[in-house]
Design goal:
It is a single chain. By secondary structure, this protein is of the alpha+beta class. The protein has a single domain, classed as Roll (Nuclear Transport Factor 2, Chain: A), CATH 3.10.450. It is 35% helix and 26% strand. It has a two-stranded antiparallel ribbon with strand order 1-2. Strands 3-4 form a two-stranded antiparallel ribbon. α1 packs antiparallel against α2. The longest helix is centred in the N-terminal third of the chain and has 17 residues.
């Protein structure tokens, strides 16, 4: 994985979050992906698998973030560190 690949993935992530397009969300994740809505948690909002991740974005419940109204969200992220298949990204989200 290189910086430009990560930049492209992060841009697709933001666009998928804005659109809530099922195919765009699914395209971001592998079949066995693990997703967390919050970086610091007790494990209550961990979602396992592509299909479950897509559902959690489209039909949130519990500790998950909830669907944003169109036009109320923007974000920009960029890779801070890329080491093999591990990436640290930094950026901002604006609601």
């Amino acid at each position: 994985m290189d910086r430009s690949t990560v930049e492209a993935w992060l841009a697709r992530y933001v666009e998928a979050w804005k659109s809530y397009d099922r195919a765009a969300i699914a395209d971001l994740f592998s079949a066995d992906a693990v997703y967390r809505f919050h970086p610091y948690n007790d494990g209550g909002d961990v979602v396992h698998g592509r299909d479950a991740i897509v559902r959690s974005w489209i039909e949130p419940d519990g500790d998950q973030s909830g669907r944003d109204e169109p036009g109320t969200y923007d974000a920009q992220y960029e890779p801070y560190a890329v080491d093999g298949d591990r990436v640290v990204a930094v950026g901002w989200s604006n609601y």
